[in-house]
Amino acid sequence: MTDVKPLSGYRVIELGQLLAGPFAGSLLAYFGAEVIKVEPPGKGDPLRNWRVMKDGTSLWWRSLGRNKKCITLDLKTEQGRELAGQLIDGADVLIENFRPGVMEKWGLGPERFKPTNPGLVYTRISGYGQTGPYAHKPGFASVCEGISGFRYVNGFKGEAPVRPNLSIGDSIAGLHAAFGVTLALLSRQSSGEGQTVDIALYEAMFNLLEGVVPEFDGAGVIREPSGTTVTGIVPTNTYRCADDKYVVIGGNGDSIFKRLMEAAGRPDMANDSRLADNTGRVQHEQEIDKALSAWCGSLPSADILQSLDQSRVPAGPIYNAEDMLADPHFNERGLFEQVEINGEPLKIPGMIPKLSDTPGETHWPGPEVGSHNAEVLGDLLGLDQAAQQQLRDDGVI
Question: How far apart are CA 129 and CA 200, in angstroms?
Answer without folding.
Answer: 4
